[in-house]
Amino acid sequence: MFPQLLPQLFAGHEGGAIPVVDPSSADGAFGLLWLVVALPALGALVLLAVAPFTRGAVDKWGHLLGALLPVGSFLVSLLLFLQLLGRDEGDRQVSQHLWNWFEVGGLKVGFDLLYDPLSALFLLLITGVGSLIHIYSIGYMEHDARRRRFFGYLNLFVAAMLMLVLSGNFLGLFLGWEGVGLASYLLIGFWQHKHSAAAAAKKAFIVNRVGDIGLSLGVALMFATFGSTDFSVISENAAGASETTLTVLGLLLLLAACGKSAQVPLQSWLLDAMEGPTPVSALIHAATMVTAGVYLIVRSNFIFELAPHAQTVVVIVAVVTLLWGAIIGCAKDDIKKALAGSTMSQIGYMMLGAGLGVAGYAFAIFHLLTHGFFKANMFLGAGSVMHGMDDDVDMRHYGALDKAMPVTFLTFAMGYLAIIGFPGFSGFWSKDKIIETALADNWVVGVLAILGAGITAFYMTRLMLMTFFTEKRWEKGVHPHESPQVMTVPLIVLAALSVLGGVMLLGDWIVDFLAPVTGTAAHEEPPIPAIAVTLIVVAVVAAGVATAWFLVGKRDVPRTAPTDVSFATRAARQDLYGDAINDTLVVLPGGALVRSLTSIDKVGVDGVVEGGSAGIGGLGLILRRAQNGYVRSYALSLLGGALLVVLALLAVNLS
Amino acid sequence: MTDFTKPTIEYSYLAPLLVVFAIACLGVLVEAFVPRKHRFLVQASLAIGGVLLTMAATIAVAYKLKEHGDASTGAGARGIVGSMGTVVVDGPSVFLWGLILVFALGGCLLFAERRLEGGVSAFAGQAAALPGTEAERRAAGLDHTEVYPLLLFAVMGMMLFPASGDLITMFVALEVLSLPLYLLCGLARRRRLLSQEAALKYFVLGAFSSGFFLYGVALTYGFAGSMNLGDINEAVRNDASNQTLMLIGLGMLAVGLLFKVGAAPFQAWTPDVYQGAPTAVTAFMSAATKTAAFGAIMRLFYVAFGADRWSWQPMMWVVAILSMLVGAVLAVTQRDVKRMLAYSAIAHTGFLLTGVLGVQSAGELSKGQLTSMQAVLFYLVTYGVSALGAFAVVSLVRDSAGEQSALNRWAGLGKHSPLVAGVFALFLLGLAGIPLTSGFIGKWAVFEVAMSSGAWPVVIVGVISSMIAAYIYVYVIVVMFFRDPEPGVAAYVVHPSVMTSATIAVGAAATLVLGIIPGPVLNLAGVAGQFLR
User: How far apart are alpha carbons B127 and B129 in whole angstroms?
Assistant: First the structure.
């Protein structure tokens, strides 16, 4: 079997108390759990499958329905959350069994939902931020002829994402995983009349498939090892599996997480994905879907805790990504791409937290939540700016927008202060905790994380200055104006959350709340006192802000990007050559393979068909010529194949 | 010289084979004696009624098998070795019979579709008339009603194929199922040159591969001294003297069978034949031939050569890997829907072979694991219904020159015919193996059995190639729904009669239902148990 065939790469592991998933069955209000998924799924069904047969009747109110259902989902989630808080700490795992997906002999895969503190927080994030973005989209997509379809896709996304975080086994998670991938693909390419959007959608799809290979193989390996994909069964039996198996499993799950969460080396699709409408970037490519990888790793803690080598790889990937994304963010003039680089980088922080094990899981989720608030806030803010600037995304054409768009400016500023970690704002608390934990674990990782925080401060300040301050560099005929209320109200709500998100850390609430899922860590003292760490981080952030002030704020910003720049800037503008690396390592050899296979196919097969359109007369000629040659060549290939089969049999058995 | 003994034939167990054969012969008589204007109605209802009758007979046999004990608790096999050892009626045989008959019923319905061509069937009015001549024009209003008996003869061969108890019967069944198919492939009403080309290619290459099979039969007889699969099994177990002869024989037999399922490197005929044949024939052939031939492959390799699994498994690994990769990679480069489906059929052959690699006997499995027989049977169900449905949809998309399967002509189909495009998208998602469709469970089942028998490299290739292939399926969906049609060349959907609609509807429902509640069919495949040795 699989594990035995691999050499024993690693040996020995320290055990630890890993919480076993052992839910009680749903009763009372928890019986409503399925509604959370069903409401947006219903919306997708109505808007996508039913509406085309109603002769446009749904187009009039489709967007309202599409916005209303996630709100309903949010209300149910809130109710469930309050119920959960009312329960004893040891009793906060609830599962709802919907039906048996398949059942053969003793093997059973159920369609089970699992509601525990981890999924509870995700439910609130997805439905809460999701609802706000749906409402915002009513304004943003007002003039789009395909608005109903857009809301249908958004609902599909929300349903799939909820399925992902609510499933009680890896197979259901996989279902949601594929679903969000599909919705993301459809939404990135929503404006398919733009060639770049179609290409970006394709790229996102392909890169994500690479990650999905990891997840499918991981699920298959779980079946082979544990005979089940239920979280409860695996968490109970994980300690009995060999460490090599668990390491392989961990690495496969990490590959999946890299694809979905745009971590190096599968990062290249996220920047291109910004071709989608801005609410999509905010919801899918900032707040929720791209954090699914972090969820996967935190959820699989029972595997990673027993596979320390896989955890180390997670940390390495995370640190590389958090720097990679930050550096890209420094060089981009496209406001959405700069934000996308920053998303990559912030997810790197979350992955770092998740890779640090029990001590870090809760902080990874904490940062994930605060990031969901402030990044959605900033993306929607960027959308509002674009709305006022006739869809121009180049920051070199912005400047001095603080007066023209006061609400957008103020809300954006809240997000900005949160992301750079200005003391008191939500991002300050969450990032600080990850850095502290990282320092306690390994000082190199900690120092690099602090460096990342400095770079974050630099590029976000640059973005802020170029957009809202400095002098006007507007295109002719552009008259920036504040967006309608349907767009600014969600901004205000998200800004408030960006400021206040830190309250979740009061009295270590989030750590204790998540403890039934992630376990309780023994307290480890960082090498230097926590307050010193905080002061150092703040100082580095201040240095980053000051650098940006002197390099961008004090100088004139040219309206076109200067070309005589250093190698470092050029590299960063090219996404650190991520695409070039992909091209050389994957696309070119792959292309060559396909081309050679195709040419074999063409010689043998396609000649006949290619001529098909040349008219009956020409076709006859071609076919007559083809008749002689091609069957012979087929027969030859058949003979060759037969020889191959026989020789292979003899070689294997008689050698 | 030994005395001649009167052969015993278990008529009640062989009833399904005999019924379908009798109805086919009756069809020939109808062709000779019933006036032309009544023939279509008589033949079509005879064929459909015959298939239904055979189904009833098959169900009766299935109930008779129940008396042989419960396979899931007993030794895992039940049934009889009938007709002096030539036909084996056991659980898997009966399951495959039922499946083939379901596909045959779909085939009959598609054959009988006459609305798409404006009152005539999709088959040539007069096959003997040269294309482009006056004779062809005069035959324009006619129908070839011989197609129904031909279909039934093929069905009889297909049913006999996986139930053969010895190599001679297997060879005869192979020919009986192939010859009518060669003919049917050449009978398209439109694009007749392409169709005849396909038929001839299929025939020449099929005959060539039959030659290999026959040679393999001879060599195996030389090794084992018997044609009977059970006796060959004995010889393989006990006689290590002439290993080379056995291996070459095994290889030759494998070539003949792998050709029929279109596994790489014997796949060259598949795209041409699938494209050239009338779409109704392609639909029937892609589902039913694969089912029959996989039944035969499993019987040959599990029963006759099962004891020597390690000698043929490496070869099967290679063939499975090649089929999946070649099918998936080349499918991605196709810009014609029928050819794309043909390459996808090659890839699916690879997935099925992956399932064949699994552990066979229930004794080696822990409770709850699938047997590879169960996985392959289930996969055949899922693939068959999706393929049959997908090809049936292809027959609806047309322009003035008949069917139009060039992908760029399909652009915008989702806008003007959302239902047809939606159903086709469902079939494609099923073929791609997206969760909540039948294809996902099927893939999961074959990967799972291969994984637990240690064939993980094959599974990795399988997962990768299904990812690759998913790209083209999704691309087709994107073209249908998001691409604006090029003015003037866009294909349109012709509304079919209830025959085709019913086939498509059943296929779509099965694709969806088997994805959500696959349990009953998986269990049925489990109850079918193992081959009787």
Answer: 6
| Whether A429 contacts A370, CB under 8 Å | yes
Taking the C-alpha atoms of residue B418 and residue B413, their distance in angstroms, rounded to an integer, is: 7
Q: How far is residue B438 CA from its own chain's centroid?
A: 17
Residue of A nearest to B263 (CA): A641
Backbone phi, psi, residue A541, to 5°: -60, -45
Provide the domain count of chain B: 1
Residue B280 belongs to some domain of the structure: yes
CA-based nearest residue to A284, from A415, A394, A186, A397:
A186
Closest CA of chain A from B359, distance in Å: 12
Q: What is the pLDDT of residues B281-296, one digit of tens each?
A: 999 999 999 999 999 9
Q: Which two tokens stand for residue B435?
A: 């969760």
Per-residue exposure over A543-567, b if at least 16 CB sit within 10 Å of its own CB, e if not: ebbebbeeebbeeebeeeeeeeeee
User: Which of B195, B215, B272 is the mutation pick for testing A, counting most A CBs within 10 A?
Assistant: B272
> What residue in A sits closest to B331 (Cα-Cα)?
A598
Task: State how far the Cα of B439 lies from the Cα of A40, in Å rounded to an integer.
Answer: 25
Residue of A nearest to B73 (CA): A105
Q: Would the ipTM clear 0.95, i.e. be above it? A: no
> Residue A124 has what pLDDT?
93
Report pLDDT for B45: 95
Residue B476 lies in a domain: yes
Query: Lowest-confidence range among A56-70, A163-177, B19-33?
Result: A56-70
Q: Name which of A185, A609, A632, A644 to mutate to probe chain B: the one with the most chain B Cβ atoms within 10 A of its Cβ.
A: A609
Residue in A closest to B132 by C-alpha? A616
- Rounded CA-CA distance A234/A109 in Å is 13
- Tell me the mean pLDDT in the region B338-359: 92
Using CA atoms of A372, A374, A378, A379 in order, give the dihedral in degrees to the nearest 10: 0
- Could you count the other beta carbons within 10 Å of the beta carbon of residue A521? 17
- For testing contact with chain B, the best of A37, A45, A101, A102 (most B CBs within 10 A): A102
* pLDDT at residue B274, rounded to an integer: 93
Q: Both tokens of residue B504?
A: 């498509």
Residues of B in contact with A593 (CB under 8 A): 329
If you average pLDDT over residues B101-120, what whole number do you get?
Answer: 91
pLDDT at position A496 over 90 = yes
What is the Cα–Cα distance from A410 to A381, expressed in whole angstroms? 10
Q: Would you say B202 and B136 are in contact if contact means Cβ atoms under 8 Å apart?
A: no
State which residues form the domain around B266: 11-527
Mean local confidence (pLDDT), B311-319: 90
Q: Kindly state the helix (H) or strand (E) to which residue B403 belongs, with its residue range.
A: strand B402-403
- Where residue A621 falls among pLDDT bands split at 50, 70, 90? very low
Residue B8 binned pLDDT confidence (cut-offs 50, 70, 90):
confident
Is B467 in contact with A100 (Cβ distance < 8 A)?
no
Query: Hey, are the CB atoms on B418 and A52 less than 8 Å from each other?
Result: yes
Alpha-carbon gap, residue A350 to A557, rounded angstroms? 33
For chain A, the average pLDDT equals 83
The answer to whether the beta carbons of residues B517 and A99 sit under 8 Å apart is yes
The yes-or-no verdict on residue B121 having pLDDT over 80 is: yes
CB contacts, 8 Å: B251 with chain A: 642, 645-646, 649
What tens digit of pLDDT does each residue of B168-193 get? 999 999 999 999 999 999 999 888 88
DSSP sequence for B191-223: SHHHHHHHHHHHHHHHHHHHHHHHHHHHHHHHH
- A107 within 8 A of B370, measured Cβ to Cβ: yes
d(CA B359, CA A419): 55
Q: What is the mean pLDDT of residues A115-137?
A: 92
